[in-house]
Each structure stands twice: as C-alpha cells, then as structure tokens.
Design brief:
This protein has 9 helices and 18 strands. The chain is of the alpha/beta class and 400 residues long. The strands form 5 sheets. The chain has an 8-stranded parallel β-sheet with strand order 12-11-10-9-5-4-18-16. Strands 3-17-15 form a 3-stranded mixed β-sheet. A 3-stranded antiparallel β-sheet has the order 6-7-8. The protein is globular and about 55 Å long.
C-alpha cells in the first residue's frame, strides 16, 4: 500500500492536525483500493445497481452488566456466548456494541457507563453501572466468542459505540480521550490474545444533532483523536443522523448543527467514516428520506475534498413504524447514491437490536424492548462473506 501523511486544518483554521487527509486525491491511494476484487464498492467505478448484497450482522444496545449475573465469570461467559452466536449467524462484517453514554461518577472518581435498564421503566431509565474495565472485558469476551466459532476466514470489525449527549455535564474533550483509551485497550487485548485475524476494535460515535451540541461533539472527537493519535488502526465511525441539516429546525436543533458540521464529524476531521442510520424515516419537513439526506451530505463532501466514504449502513428493524431491515437499508443508500462520483461504500450492513440480554440468556423479553429480532430468533439470511483483506483494504489497518 502506498500512503503518506499530510496536514489538514481544523475548521477554525487555527490549529493543524497531523494525519491522513480524508482520502483526497492520491494522498492515500490504498485506502480505497482492494487487495481483493471484493472489498470496496466504489460508486465512481461500478453501476451500484449491479453490486452484490452486503455482509450482514447483528449489533447491540448494551443492556447487560456484571450486576445482573451471580459472578463475573458468568457475566463474561454471557458476552462470549453471544459472540459465538454472531459468528454462527453471519459471515463476518461490522458489529456495533453501543454503550449509550459516557458518565463520570464523582463519588467514585471514575468514568463508566450505565447499561440500559432491561425494563425501560421509565423509558429512558438507566440500568446497572459498568466501569471502563467491565466494558473492556465484555468486548474482549465477545471477540473470544467470535474467534472460537467463526468460520475459517470470516472477519469482524467491532465498533465500540457511545452517544454524543452531555446531560451530566462532563468535559467532552476528556470523555473523548477516555473513550479513545478504552478502544486502544481493547485493541491491545485482541492483539495480545491472538484474536486479530478474527476481529479488530475501532471507535464509533452516535452523533445525533438532537442529543448533543456541535461544540460538545467536536470536542469529544478531538479528544478521541488525541488519544488514538489519528492512527488508522483506530478510525472513528459516525453512526448518527442528519436531522438538523436541511429545512428542519425543531427546538433540539438549535445547537449549531449545519451541513458543514455533519460533514466534519463524519468525514472532514480526517479520521472518521460515515455509518448512516438508514431506518426508513421520511422527514415531511425536509421532504427527504434518510438515504437522500446522506446523498446530499456526500455530495457536499465531494464538492469540498473530491471524496466521501461510507463504512456501510446501520438499520434498526424492530423499532416501528416499518423500519428497514439491514439488507434493504443498504440498498436504499446505494440507490440514493446512484450517479454520484467520488463516493465509496464498504458493502456491510448491520441491524442494531435490544436483544443482547435475551440472546445471552435464551429467555424472551428479558429486555422489554427486544422484539424477537436478536440472534436467538432472527432468521439467518444468506449474506456475502467479509474478510480480513477486505477490512485491511478499506481501513488500511496498522499502516504508519
């Protein structure tokens, strides 16, 4: 692979961040060139309508904490069990483990996360507390399950996700640094345990305009980038939305969001890739559906730098009314991107579900929001295989 470093300016123009220029020109030719014919679907090179189906996976909102098990060993075994189930259902791909929100416990003087309450009472109620060490061990156990049950050559990218809200509030720059350290720790664990031919760990931010301001989101990303040192081993996926970037201006969108800032968060900071929520939402205020919005953002990015990249799509099939499944979500994005040059898409799609605890225990409605689309009950659909070479070609894994 032929890559070189470059300098790019932050939006204010007052600081420079050394790292990879976001795929502009020939700065990193290998970022988009596949070692195999499979790896990256390029909108500029192939008719999108002829592309094969994506690699399909199941992702999870995290509702499973140590407190819910008699022993720590049983807690880790539960994550390992679900990782094995994932490997038995999929042929590799992208899996998001969404921890929801970073929190800081002032009494304990430590960062952590409240798992989602399986009872969801009240609807936004928070469940048991998990420290970062719990999250690190949980993700590593999930990867062990993948490794033990994956078919030969199947490969998984594990994205550790968190939301951009700042309800406490906390220093979002510090929160981004803390999350970066967690992702680095998991990445090192996988390498130490010899699991990196089955799975890699990367970061992910659910950057939703209705939940967090531009300034908080940008500071979080800068913190993450500082900790990971813009390593291409540890890119950041934006699996957020575009609710506040067009004609729509609800009260929650009065926090600085514009099309420019969505571009910066998902691509323009030089270390990120978009993983759009294609849920099937038709925004009557904008007269656009979600995939069309992402096309507009991609076109905006192409006009600025000549390129824009998608790391696949994310769906949320179980949430009514009539949300898409992961395969259809991917096809909607590809259809919306027809004719737009300079855009690249990794052919993977994932469905995020509330069924982690159900899948781990084998019991229905352990999480009251699980609608039966977890791995334990969901039909196993044929999907394309995702390999380490494909991930290497897209993410340029481990290159200096």
């Amino acid at each position: 692979m032929i890559c070189r470093s470059a300098r790019r300016h932050t939006p204010e123009g007052s600081r420079e961040v050394k790292g990879l220029v976001g795929l502009s020109g020939a700065v990193c030719i290998a970022w988009w060139l596949s070692a195999l014919a499979w790896s990256v679907a390029k909108a500029s090179d192939a008719p999108l309508a002829t592309l094969a189906a994506p690699a399909l996976t199941t992702s999870y909102y995290i509702d499973m904490a140590p407190e819910e098990f008699p022993t720590n060993a049983e807690f880790l075994q539960a994550y390992r069990r679900v990782g094995c189930m994932e490997a038995g259902s999929a042929r590799g791909g992208l899996v998001i483990l969404d921890f929801g929100e970073s929190r800081y416990s002032k009494p304990a003087r430590q960062w952590g996360h409240n798992a989602w309450s399986p009872l969801h009472n009240p609807p936004n109620g928070l469940g048991p507390w998990m420290v970062n060490a719990d999250m690190e061990r949980a993700v590593t156990a999930f990867a062990r399950g993948l490794h033990g049950c994956a078919k030969n050559g199947d490969f998984y990218v594990l994205a550790l996700g968190v939301n951009n809200n700042n309800y406490e509030p906390v220093s979002m720059l510090t929160a981004g640094k803390v999350w970066g350290r967690l992702v680095v720790a998991v990445d090192q664990d996988l390498e130490r345990l010899g699991l990196t031919h089955t799975a890699w760990a990367i970061g992910a931010l659910d950057a939703e305009a209705g939940f967090g301001s531009v300034s908080d989101t940008v500071n979080w990303i800068r913190g993450y980038n500082i900790t990971t040192r813009l390593s291409r081993r540890l890119p950041l996926l934006d699996f957020g939305d575009l609710e506040c970037s067009f004609n729509r201006r609800p009260p929650s969108c009065g926090s600085g969001w514009t099309l420019y800032w969505h571009w910066w968060v998902s691509w323009g900071n030089g270390h990120a890739l978009a993983l759009p929520e294609i849920y099937g939402i038709d925004d009557k205020a904008d007269r656009l559906y979600d995939a069309q919005k992402w096309r507009r953002l991609a076109a905006f990015g192409v006009a600025r730098t000549g390129t824009y990249g998608f790391a696949g799509t994310i769906a949320e099939q179980e949430v009514p009314p009539g949300h898409y499944d992961s395969r259809y979500a991917f096809s909607r994005l590809m259809s919306a991107l027809q004719g737009l040059r300079g855009v690249s898409v990794l052919p993977v799609s994932t469905n995020i579900t509330w069924c982690l605890l159900d899948d781990a225990t084998g019991e229905r409605q352990k999480d009251t929001w699980c609608a039966g689309d977890g791995l334990l009950w969901a039909p196993r659909l044929p999907a394309r295989r995702f390999t380490e070479a494909a991930a290497e070609a897209f993410f340029t894994r481990g290159k200096p």
